[in-house]
Amino acid sequence: MTKKIVLAYSGGLDTSVAIPWLKDKGYDEIIAVCLNVGQPGTDMDFIQKKALEVGASESYAIDAQDEFADKYVAPVIKSNALYEGDYPLVSALSRPLIIDHLVKIAHDHGATAIAHGSTGKGNDQVRFEAAIHALDPDLEIEAPIRDFHWSREEEIDYAKEHNVPVPIGKKSPYSIDCNLWGRANEAGILENPWNQAPDDAWGMSVSPEEAPDEPVFLDLTFEKGLPVAIDGTPMPLATLIKNLNKVAGDNGIGRIDKIENRMVGIKSREVYEAPGAAVIMTAHHELENLTLERDIAHYKPLIEQQITSMIYEAKWITPLFDALMAFVDETQKNVNGVVKMKLYKGNVTAVARKSPNSLYDENLATYTSADSFDQEAAAGFIKLWTLPATVYEQVNHVHSQAKDKVNND
Amino acid sequence: MTKKIVLAYSGGLDTSVAIPWLKDKGYDEIIAVCLNVGQPGTDMDFIQKKALEVGASESYAIDAQDEFADKYVAPVIKSNALYEGDYPLVSALSRPLIIDHLVKIAHDHGATAIAHGSTGKGNDQVRFEAAIHALDPDLEIEAPIRDFHWSREEEIDYAKEHNVPVPIGKKSPYSIDCNLWGRANEAGILENPWNQAPDDAWGMSVSPEEAPDEPVFLDLTFEKGLPVAIDGTPMPLATLIKNLNKVAGDNGIGRIDKIENRMVGIKSREVYEAPGAAVIMTAHHELENLTLERDIAHYKPLIEQQITSMIYEAKWITPLFDALMAFVDETQKNVNGVVKMKLYKGNVTAVARKSPNSLYDENLATYTSADSFDQEAAAGFIKLWTLPATVYEQVNHVHSQAKDKVNND
Amino acid sequence: MTKKIVLAYSGGLDTSVAIPWLKDKGYDEIIAVCLNVGQPGTDMDFIQKKALEVGASESYAIDAQDEFADKYVAPVIKSNALYEGDYPLVSALSRPLIIDHLVKIAHDHGATAIAHGSTGKGNDQVRFEAAIHALDPDLEIEAPIRDFHWSREEEIDYAKEHNVPVPIGKKSPYSIDCNLWGRANEAGILENPWNQAPDDAWGMSVSPEEAPDEPVFLDLTFEKGLPVAIDGTPMPLATLIKNLNKVAGDNGIGRIDKIENRMVGIKSREVYEAPGAAVIMTAHHELENLTLERDIAHYKPLIEQQITSMIYEAKWITPLFDALMAFVDETQKNVNGVVKMKLYKGNVTAVARKSPNSLYDENLATYTSADSFDQEAAAGFIKLWTLPATVYEQVNHVHSQAKDKVNND
Amino acid sequence: MTKKIVLAYSGGLDTSVAIPWLKDKGYDEIIAVCLNVGQPGTDMDFIQKKALEVGASESYAIDAQDEFADKYVAPVIKSNALYEGDYPLVSALSRPLIIDHLVKIAHDHGATAIAHGSTGKGNDQVRFEAAIHALDPDLEIEAPIRDFHWSREEEIDYAKEHNVPVPIGKKSPYSIDCNLWGRANEAGILENPWNQAPDDAWGMSVSPEEAPDEPVFLDLTFEKGLPVAIDGTPMPLATLIKNLNKVAGDNGIGRIDKIENRMVGIKSREVYEAPGAAVIMTAHHELENLTLERDIAHYKPLIEQQITSMIYEAKWITPLFDALMAFVDETQKNVNGVVKMKLYKGNVTAVARKSPNSLYDENLATYTSADSFDQEAAAGFIKLWTLPATVYEQVNHVHSQAKDKVNND
C-alpha cells in the first residue's frame, strides 16, 4: 500500500529538506500544501512549483486569506484577545486553519500522516499537533525539524545531496512568522532582553520617528463587533485589515517588544508588529465602552483572558473554546457604530465615537439642568452598598481602631 | 452641647458656600480640612485662611503627598490597576485618604458629623461615604452639594448674601479633579462623545504634535514592585511620580479619552491625564513579564481586575481588599530590576529590561547550540495536554465530522 | 382617565389589604394576578374570587407551572446554580416570571403601574422591581407593604374597616415562600442562629429519622442537561420535579439550614427545602463529571457562580445573563445519559452512571493489560508542566533554601 | 564515587522490588524512607526493617502526622478545597510532604537521585516529580514502576529471584492510598462506572444503613479557620481529625463515589472516604457563612477553586500557591466560633452556629419591631442597581419587545 503524508510546506529550506527526509523515512508520496494567509511577498506559484521540484508528489497552493480573516481573526477582535495584555496572537491563529486544510487533503488522498515544520521548543508544534489530534487522532504526525538534530551545516549538506536549493548568503539571524494579522520575530540579538530591538528587526512598520508629521484620521465602522468599513467604504475583513496595516504601519503604529511566557514553559523575547490590529482593537474596545452594559463590560474581560490563553495554548478546537465564543458572540449583537481614529507617529487613539446602540445617555450623565438622574436615589444606594463592610468593621474593628483608641483616652 | 462637623474643604465656591449652609442647618462649629495630595497650583495657606474667612471655626491644611503616594498609589502600581483597561484611578485614590484624616480630626474634636462636597450623580459621594461608614458608622454625613437643588445663579446669590467670595468671570465648563497621580476632566463639550476633546480640556500634558522631536530615554529602577529611582537616582515615590509627570507630560504622554461606566449606573465621558502613571505602569508590567512565574503572570490579572473595580467602587476599606492586596504583595517580592523607557511624542515604550530575578533563561530560550531545553519532552507534553479534547472529539465529533463524511463516501 | 394598576396577588392578608390601600392612593382599577408556580395547597379559584371580593376590578389566576419549570428552573439545573454553594434559588426564580405576566397584562389593559407585596428589607423587592424596570421602565411601581409602616394590629384594624377577611388564630411565626422547586422559611425562632430549626419549620420533607428504613433507587435520564424521565418514564419537567419532591421529601432529603448574605447587605438565617432539586442537581453534576471535557468541567463553575449570583441578585433580565446562558447551553449539548440515584434517610447519592457521550474510556483508565494510555508521554509532560516553577525556584530559592544551607556546611 | 538514591518506600511489593531493580540499574546505596501520614494499620517498625531485609543500605521510618495535618491539611480546610466540588484531596497532600523529607535526606547523604513508586498514568508521579524539581532540580528521578513494563507474573518472578517476599493470596483488585485525611480507592470492578461500588471497596466507614439509629451531636470550635476543639476539649489537629474519622465513619459519613478528571488527561472512577473531613469542611463552610463579609464570601470561592486545582495538579510548591494562600490566610483571621454538628446515618449537618465575630445582626435581620434596617434606602438602591440593564433595554429592546408589539396593535 502506498504510504502518503501531507506536509505543511512554506517554501523555505527546512520544509524543503523535509521532503527527501520524509521519503528516506519511508513515505512514498509527499503532498505539499502551502496556504496564503496574507504573509507579504509570498509567490504562491513559485512555492507550489518548488515543492514538486524537490520531490513532492503533489503540491497545493491555497489562498485562504478571507477564511483566515473571517473565521480566525474575527474571534480575536470580538474578544479583545491580547496575550498577556500585549500581543494580538498572530501565529497562533494560522495553525488550526492550516491543519484544517491539511486534514481534509489527507482524507481526500487517503494519507495516513501529517508533517509540520516546527521545532521542539516553540508553541507552534503544540498548535499543529493539537489540531491534528482534534480533527483526526488516527493521523500520524511527523515533525522533521524537531527530529533532525542537525547543525546548520549538516542541513545544508543534506540539502545539497538531495538537490534541494540552498539560499545564498547569510541566514537571517531572526526567526520570523507572518500573516495578514501581523508579524512575529524572535531570536538573534533579541535573545538578550537588555538589547534594544535594532531597526532590521521590524518589517511591517516604520519607526514613530520616521512617520509623517501630520496625523491621519479615519472612521472605522463596526457591525456586530467587527469592522466593516473604512471612512464609510465597506470591504471584506481581510481587505480592511491589509489596508489598515499599510496606513498604520506607515504611521509607526503596532510595534510590540515584550518578554512572554511560552506554553512549553520558558520565557522568550518577542518583537511583534500588528499595525492594523492595533487600530481595530483600540477602536473595538472603545466602541464596547459605549455599547456594552456595565455588568458585561466588567465580566467579559475574564472570558477574554481565558479565550486568549486558549488560543495561545493550542486549544482552538475544544468544546470550552466553542462555549466561550458563544458567550462572546451573544455580547456583540449590539456592538455597532463608528469610531474616529487618529493615527500619528506611533499613537493610535479613539478620539470620537457614536452608535445607534449607545448606552451613553446625555440626559443621565449631564451636569446641566436637563438632568434626569434621580440624585436622591444615591443616598439609599450608598447605604446598602456599604452595609456588609460597615457591619464587618463594627464587629471586627480592623481599620477603625484609631477611633477606639482616641475614645479610650 | 456644641454641635461640630468636619468639612472636606477645597477652597472652591461649592465647599465655601457649604460653610454658611451647614451653620444654617444647625452646626455650631465647622472644622474645615484641606489636604494637599499633589493637585498642582494649590496655595494651601490661602485655602486655610479662606475657610476661616467664610466662617469655619477651625481650618487645617495638611500636606499628605507622601502618604498618598506610599499608601494609596503604591497598591495601584503593584496591581497594574487600570479601570476598564484604561484609567489608572486618579480621584478614587484620594477619597479614603481624605476621610481617614477627617475621621481622626472629628474624633479629636468630638465632632459628630462629616461633610463632603460631592454631587449626587458621581462616584465620589460613594467613596467618601463608604470610608466614613467603615471608619465610624456613628458619624452623620452631610452632602450639601447633593442637597442644594440650586441653580448656579441661586448659589451665587446665596454666596453673596453670606459673604462668600464669588469667582470672577465665566465658570469653567469642565469639572476637574487633580492629584499627583493624575487629572480627571468631564462635563461641558465632552458630554457629546462624538466631539473630540478640545485643547483646553487638557492640563498636565502637551499634545504629541507639540512634543519634542527627539526621544527621551530613562531607566526606571524597581524594588518589590515599586519604582525607587530614575536613571539610578533614588527618590521618594511622590517625588518620582512628580518628576515623571513633568518629563512625560512634556512628551505628550498619558492622555486618556474614554467612555466609562460609573458606579451609580450611568456612562460618562471622561478625559484623563496621567503622564507619570503611564511611564510607571508600562515599565512595571514589562518588569513583571520578566520576573513573574507563568502561572502568577496569568492569574494575577484576575485579581487585578477585582482590585481595580473595588478601588473604583468605593471598597478600599474592606476585608476583601485587604486579602487581595495580601495576594499582590506576595507576588511583588521578586519584582526587582531596571526597565529602560523611551518617551517620544505620546509613545511610552519599554525598550530594554534586566533583573537579578529574571526568569528569562537564555540557555532555555535560545535557538543556538547552547540550548539546554529538552526538545524530546515536547512530544509527551503535547499528547497529555491535548488528550481531553481529543477524547471529546472521538466521542462527540463536533469538529471532525468532515472526515466521517469523506469516509462514508 | 382611568388609573389602573396590576397587583401581584397571593391571596394572603398583606396583598388583600393592598387592594383598598391602592384605591385610597388613587388607583381606579386594581387588576389582581395570581400565578400558580407549584406552591402546594393553593386553591387558585378561591384566590381569584377573593381578590374580586376585597375590591379588585379584575382577577386572573394563571397556571404557570410548566413555563416556570421550562424557562426558569431549567437554567438552574444546567448551571448547577447553588447560592453560596448551598441553596438552589427558590424564590428568586418566580419573580421574573410573575413580572413577565404582570407587564403583559398591564400592557393589555393600559395599566400604568404594578404593585408587589414585598417588604423593604428582603431580596424580592429588588427582583420584582428589576424585572419591571427591564420590561417597561415607564411603569410606576407601588410597594404597599414596604410603605405601610403599620404594626400587625394596625393592619388588622385597617383590614376590618375595609372588609378584608382576617385569618383566624395566631399568625405563623415564619415567613414562607414556596413553589414547585422548593420552599423558603425564615423569621421567628430561626432568627437566632444558635437555635436549631424546630420541627414546625419544615413543610416539604420528613426528617431523616422519620424516613423509611429501606433505600429507594431510581434512574434519572437526562437529555441536553435536563432530566426527562424517571425510571425510563418520560414526563414534563414540572411533573418530574413534583414527583421527585414527593419521593425525596418522604426520604428526608433536601433540607438546608444556613446563614446567607442577602443582596440588601445583611445576613439572614434561612431554612430551605428542595427535595426534588437535591436529586436532580446531584445527578446532573455527576453526569457532567462523566460527559464534560476537562477544561469545561474546570471552567464552568466560574460561570455558574456568576449565574447564581445574578439570579439571586435580581439580574435575570440582563444581557450578561443571556451571554452566560449562551455559554451554558453550549456546554450541555452532550450532557446525555442515565444516573442511578439512591435515596435513603436524608442521603441522596449517585451510585452509577452511563452515557452515550461518556468521556470515560476504560481502555485509557484501566490498570489492566488492556491499557492504551502512553505511559512514556508522562515524563515529557511533567518536565514542561513544572518548568516555570522550577526555573522560579532556581532563580529565587523560595522553598529550596534548605539545600543551599546544607551544601554550604 | 558511591552512587546513592533515596527511595519513597511503602513496604509493599512494588517499592520492595524497586530496591534490587535500582541496584541492577547501578545505584550502590538505596536509602529507603517511609513516612507515617496516618495511614491506618501501618507497622512502621516492620516496614523499616523490611527495607533493610530486601537490600536497602539505610531505612528511615518517620512519624509525620502532625506536620501533615498542620502544614498540608490545614490549607485545605481554610480553602474549602474540594476537587471538582466533591473530593477533599487526600493523596495530593502527602506527596509534597514526602518529597520534602526525601530531598533533605538526599542532601544529608549526598544522594544524587530520588525514586518513587508511581505508575505512568496517575497523578502522583506528577506530584512527586514536581516537588523534586522545585526543591532540587539537579536531583535525578527514577520511577521504577513506570519503567518496569512487567506483568504481575514477571514482577513476582523477579521478586522471588531477588529474595523479596511475595504476599500470599490473591492481590487486592483495588489500588488504595490512605492517610489521616482520607482514603482513595480505584481500579478493579470500579472501572465500569455503571457498577455500584461493592461493600469491600470501603475501608474507613460503615454504610449509612449500618450506622446507629440515634444521631450524634458534637460542637466543633474553630480559631482562625481551623478546628481546635471537640465539645470544648482542645486537641492537636491530627488528633482531632482522627477522632472525627472514627465517630463520623461509624455514622456512615464521608463516602464519595465519582468520575474525576485526572491531570494526565483521562477520566477515572474513584471511591473516596473522608469522614473527618466531611464534618470539618461542612462546619467550616457554615462558620464562614456567619463570619465572612459578603464580598469575601462571594469572591473566595474563585480563589478556592484555583487552590484546589493547583493542589490536585502538583503545584503546591509554586509562587502562585503561596500568593493564593496569603489571600486565604488574610480571610481567616476572624473565622472563630462554634458549630454544632449533627451526625446521623450518612448525614452531616450544621444545625447551630455562634461566633464572637458573627456578622449576623439580629437587629438588622429581624422582622420584629426591633428593626434597625432602613427600609427607605432600598428604593434608591434598586434604582441605581438596575440602571445599567434598564438603559440597555430602553436602547436595545431585547426582552421588552412584547410591549412594543402590543403597543403597535
UniProtKB/TrEMBL annotation, chains A, B, C, D:
PROSITE patterns: ARGININOSUCCIN_SYN_1, ARGININOSUCCIN_SYN_2
Domain Arginosuccinate synthase-like N-terminal: residue ranges: 4-165
Chain residues that bind L-citrulline: 87, 123, 127, 175, 260, 272
This protein's record includes keyword Transmembrane: no
E.C. numbers: 6.3.4.5
GO biological process entries: argininosuccinate metabolic process; L-arginine biosynthetic process; urea cycle
Any one GO cellular component localisation term in the record: cytoplasm
InterPro entries: Arginosuc_syn_C, Arginosuc_syn_N, Arginosuc_synth, Arginosuc_synth_CS, Arginosuc_synth_type_1_subfam, AS_cat/multimer_dom_body, Rossmann-like_a/b/a_fold
Start and end residues of each Arginosuccinate synthase C-terminal domain: 174-392
Keywords: Amino-acid biosynthesis, Arginine biosynthesis, ATP-binding, Cytoplasm, Ligase, Nucleotide-binding
GO MF annotations in UniProt: argininosuccinate synthase activity; ATP binding
Top-level taxon in the UniProt lineage: Bacteria
Subcellular location: Cytoplasm
CDD domains assigned: ASS
Ligand binding (L-aspartate): 119, 123-124
Chief localization: cytoplasm
Residues the entry annotates as binding ATP: 8-16, 117
Catalytic activity: L-citrulline + L-aspartate + ATP = 2-(N(omega)-L-arginino)succinate + AMP + diphosphate + H(+)
Known pathway: Amino-acid biosynthesis; L-arginine biosynthesis; L-arginine from L-ornithine and carbamoyl phosphate: step 2/3
Family of this protein: Belongs to the argininosuccinate synthase family. Type 1 subfamily.
NCBIfam families: argG, PRK00509.1
Assembly and interaction partners: Homotetramer.
Protein name (record): Argininosuccinate synthase
Originating organism: Lacticaseibacillus manihotivorans DSM 13343 = JCM 12514
Gene: argG
